[in-house]
Amino acid sequence: MVVDTFTITEEDPRLIKKIKIKIDSIPEIDGIFVANSKSYMIAEVLTENKNIKIVGYDLLQKNKDLINEGVIDFLINQQPSQQTYQGIELLYRYLVMNETPPAIIDIPLDIVCTEKLMYYDDSI
After folding, report:
1. One-character DSSP codes across 35-98
2. Can you tell me the distance from the alpha carbon of 107 to that of 96, in angstroms, rounded to the nearest whole number?
3. Among 66, 70, 78, 116, which has the minimal tally of Cβ within 10 Å of its Cβ?
4. Quick one: which of 1, 2, 76, 8 has its CA closest to 45?
């Protein structure tokens, strides 16, 4: 297995073209991991190649739409509401209770696929 990295910026006016060139330069590409919430940008380029699997982060509406369409295969949900709650709770305990926060705080990640997406409705 070969792992190749590619860094892009959303502000780049030639972004889509650069992504296409990079993907086309790897003839036996099986999958793409997008290490931020911009999975939808990669998915836009891959409309003609459905054999490439995409794994990305965050349940943005654009990403959710593309996982429903089968373009994105998996999204990693970082549970932002749980992160926020933990942060405020630890801040309270530090400022009011004089408790030292732990060095590491474990918050589980969710692996979301099409079948599980319905459980992550924003209205709940």
Report:
1. SSS-HHHHHHHGGG-TTSEEEEE---HHHHHHHHTTSS-EEEE--HHHHHHHHHHHHHHHHTT-
2. 23
3. 70
4. 8
* Rounded CA separation 98/63 (Å): 41
Q: Which residue has the tokens 């099409």?
A: 114
Residue 15 belongs to what H/E stretch?
A: helix 15-24
Predicted confidence (pLDDT) per residue in 76-98, tens digit = 998 888 889 999 999 999 999 99
Q: What is the b/e burial string over 36-54, where b = at least 16 CB atoms within 10 angstroms of the residue's CB?
A: ebbbbbbbebbeeeeebeb
**pLDDT: which is higher, 76 or 123:** 76
Dist. CA 58–CA 64, nearest whole Å: 9
For position 49, what pLDDT does the model report? 63
pLDDT in tens, 6-54: 777 777 778 888 888 888 888 788 889 998 888 888 887 876 666 889 9
Q: Which two tokens stand for residue 37?
A: 């919430």
